[in-house]
């Protein structure tokens, strides 16, 4: 998709968080409601929204200290706009704003190849603690 046909926005100001919440719920990335999602994005160091005219077609965010460490979450692109480089563009826009930081992410097991395709490397030393550990265990997030 020609990048002049969509707009990259990094501010939460004019974003409809109902759309953000809907998109992330639809793809199973987060089930938070729109007000909570607004808080989550406002509290993030980097937020990226992709809009085509008034339609939100992609989203992504990162938490960070802005200097040394960052973590990417909630990368999603609407079905009908996939395979056109928008997902990678969102990640690249985030990485640009985290320049100089070590950047980590975790993803669903089915997307591991995708992030390798986008230049990320698998780590052998990462650990996690999740309140809803059973769910992640069932989905195959843990190796132990
Ligand atoms: C993952 C997602 C964001 C990708 O968005 P997209 O706009 O289609 O991505 P892009 O077009 O930039 O890149 C797709 C590229 O990755 C490749 N790819 C896609 N899935 C892959 C996989 N599992 N393994 C390896 N490569 C993969 C494609 O072949 C394509 O390659 P190309 O650029 O060389 O042609 C999108 O599919 C999505 O929103 N999925 C649902 C939400 C989700 O699961 N997000 C990830 C969890 S954090």
Order of helices and strands: EHHEEEHEHH
What is the CATH-assigned architecture of the largest domain? 3-Layer(aba) Sandwich
Radius of gyration: 15 Å
Shape: globular
Poorly predicted runs are none
Neighbour order of strands in the largest sheet: 1-2-3-4-5
Helix content: 25-40%
CATH class of the largest domain: Alpha Beta
Strand proportion: 15-25%
Describe the structure.
By secondary structure, the chain is an alpha+beta fold. The chain folds into 2 domains: 3-105, 3-Layer(aba) Sandwich (Aminopeptidase); 106-144, no CATH class. 30% of the residues lie in helices and 22% in strands. The chain is built from 5 helices and 5 strands. The protein has a 5-stranded mixed sheet, sandwiched between helices. The mean pLDDT is 96. The structure holds coenzyme A. The site of coenzyme A (COA) has 18 residues, from strand 4, helix 3 and helix 4. Coenzyme A binds at residues 27, 29, 75-77, 82-88, 107-108, 111, 113-114, 117.
Keywords:
single chain; alpha+beta; Aminopeptidase; 2 domains; 22% strand
Short description:
With 144 residues, the chain is α+β, with helices and mostly antiparallel strands.
Outline the fold blueprint.
Blueprint: E1 7-9, H1 17-26, H2 34-42, E2 46-52, E3 55-64, E4 69-77, H3 86-97, E5 102-104, H4 112-117, H5 133-138
Parallel strand pairs: 4-5
Antiparallel strand pairs: 1-2, 2-3, 3-4
Helix pairs in contact: 1-2
The structure holds coenzyme A.
